[in-house]
Design a protein that fits this description.
Radius of gyration: 27 Å
Order of helices and strands: HHEEEEHEEEEHEEEEE
CATH class of the domain at 51-80 and 89-138 and 152-225 and 272-349: Mainly Beta
Number of strands: 13
Structural class: alpha+beta
Number of helices: 4
Distance between the termini: 95 Å
Strand content: 15-25%
Low-confidence stretches: 9-22
Helix content: 10-25%
CATH superfamily of the domain at 51-80 and 89-138 and 152-225 and 272-349: Translation factors
CATH architecture of the domain at 51-80 and 89-138 and 152-225 and 272-349: Beta Barrel
Mean pLDDT: 83
Length: 368
C-alpha cells in the first residue's frame, strides 16, 4: 500500500493543471514562407501626364469588362450552359461563403420600438477564382475535425475587390491567369460540397443570402500590441490610496508558490493583445441592399477594424441551419443566386423590423 504522501506526489506528477486551452493561439504577424508575395517594388517609370491618364482609362475599361463578363458567366450558369444540370439543394450540403468589408454600425428598430444594434457588411466584387476537387485538395494544415471520407469536401477559391494589376507581382497575378479573373486584393478558400462547385468567374453578390438567414462571421481582431493585465484581462488593479507603492496596475500574486514552484499554463499575464481570428456564430441578417451589396447583420461585436475584411458563410449551429424552425422556409439559393435581385428593387427588410419608408402613424378621415 502507498502512503498518503506518496499518492499525493504521484497525483502531482501525473495531473498537469491548466487554466485555459490557449495553446497554438499566438498572433501571426507574418505570412508563411511558402506564401506568394503579393505586392512588388514600385519604381518611377517617368510617365507623362497623358500616358498616366491613358493607363488609368485602360484600367477602368478592364475592370468594367471584367464585371460584365462575371455577370454573363452567371447567366450562362443559370441557363444550364455550363457543367450541365445544376444540383438541387439537400440538407447536409455546404455552400460557399463570401468575402465582405466591415463598413460600420447602424441601429434598427422593431415594430414595437425595440432597438437593435447591427453591423453593415459590404460584399465587394466577389468572384470565383478556382475550384479544387476533393481528390486534389490537400490543405497545408489539416482541420481539427476528422475528414469525411464518404462525402469529402472540395475547396472553392474566392477573390474580392479588384486591384491594380501593375501593383501585384508576376507570381501573384499568375494565380488568376487560368481563370480569366482580374487579380484581387483578397483571397479566401471555402470548403464546399462537390455539388456546390461554381465555374471560374462566377459573381457572388448579396443575393447569395436571404433576409432572416443565420450566418457565421469570421474576422481578425484589432491588433493592440503588448498590453498589461488591466487592459488585456480587465483586472481591477490595486487601490490608489496610501500604502500602495507602484503596484496600481500590476497583476499581483499569481499563486505559483509551494510545491508547484512554476507558472501554470494559461495564467492571465501581460502579453500581446488582439490580432487573433474570432468567429461569431448564429448572426441573423436583418436587411439587404442589392444596389450596393450591403447586408445588416445583428450584433455590434464583429471582430476587425472599420474597412476590415471578414468572411461570411452559412452557420453551423444545428438549430439555426437551413430548414430549422425560425429560418426562412424553402431551400437557399444553391449553389448561389443565379438571378440576383435588381439594383433598383430597394432594400429588403425583415418582417419584424420597422421600415422607415413607411408611415408609422396613420389618421382616419373622421378623426379630429
Amino acid at each position: 500500500m502507498f502512503s498518503s504522501s506518496t499518492v499525493s506526489t504521484l497525483l502531482r506528477q501525473s495531473i498537469i493543471p491548466v487554466r485555459s486551452k490557449n495553446y497554438l493561439n499566438r498572433p501571426r504577424l507574418r505570412n508563411p514562407v511558402w506564401f506568394v508575395k503579393k505586392t512588388r517594388t514600385l519604381h518611377n517609370e517617368q510617365f507623362t501626364e497623358d500616358n498616366t491618364a491613358f493607363l488609368n482609362e485602360v484600367k477602368r475599361e478592364t475592370i468594367l469588362s471584367a464585371a460584365q463578363r462575371s455577370q454573363s458567366n452567371l447567366l450562362k450558369l443559370a441557363h444550364g450552359e455550363q457543367n450541365g444540370q445544376l444540383a438541387q439543394w439537400a440538407p447536409g450540403l455546404k455552400r460557399t461563403g463570401v468575402i465582405a468589408k466591415k463598413i460600420g454600425q447602424y441601429p434598427l428598430w422593431t415594430k414595437d420600438g425595440q432597438k437593435i444594434r447591427t453591423t453593415l457588411l459590404q460584399i465587394v466584387d466577389n468572384e470565383v477564382v478556382k475550384y479544387i476537387p476533393p481528390e486534389e485538395y490537400r490543405p497545408a494544415q489539416e482541420p481539427r475535425q476528422s475528414r469525411n471520407w464518404r462525402k469529402p469536401y472540395g475547396c472553392l477559391l474566392v477573390g474580392a475587390e479588384h486591384g491594380d494589376p501593375s501593383l501585384f507581382t508576376k507570381e501573384y497575378a499568375g494565380l488568376f491567369h487560368e481563370s480569366g479573373v482580374l487579380p484581387k486584393k483578397h483571397l479566401c478558400r471555402f470548403i464546399v460540397s462537390p455539388e456546390a462547385q461554381l465555374p471560374s468567374g462566377t459573381a457572388l453578390t448579396v443575393s447569395h443570402f436571404r433576409v432572416g438567414d443565420f450566418v457565421d462571421v469570421r474576422g481578425l481582431t484589432v491588433d493592440r500590441g503588448f498590453q498589461g493585465v488591466v487592459k488585456r484581462h480587465g483586472f481591477k488593479g490595486m487601490p490608489k490610496s496610501h500604502g500602495v507603492t507602484k503596484t496600481h496596475r500590476r497583476p499581483g500574486n499569481i499563486g505559483a508558490g509551494g510545491n508547484k514552484a512554476r507558472v501554470w499554463p494559461g495564467t492571465r499575464l501581460p502579453g500581446h493583445m488582439g490580432n487573433r481570428w474570432r468567429v461569431l456564430r448564429g448572426l441573423r441578417i436583418l436587411r439587404i441592399n442589392p444596389q450596393y451589396n450591403v447586408m445588416w447583420v445583428m450584433g455590434s461585436n464583429i471582430a476587425g477594424n472599420t474597412n476590415g475584411i471578414v468572411y461570411i458563410y452559412d452557420t453551423i449551429l444545428p438549430l439555426r441551419r437551413h430548414g430549422a424552425k425560425g429560418v426562412p422556409a424553402g431551400p437557399p439559393p444553391f449553389p448561389t443566386a443565379l438571378e440576383p435581385l435588381p439594383a433598383d428593387s430597394g432594400d429588403i427588410w425583415l418582417e419584424d423590423l420597422h421600415d422607415f419608408r413607411k408611415l408609422s402613424i396613420t389618421y382616419s378621415a373622421g378623426s379630429e
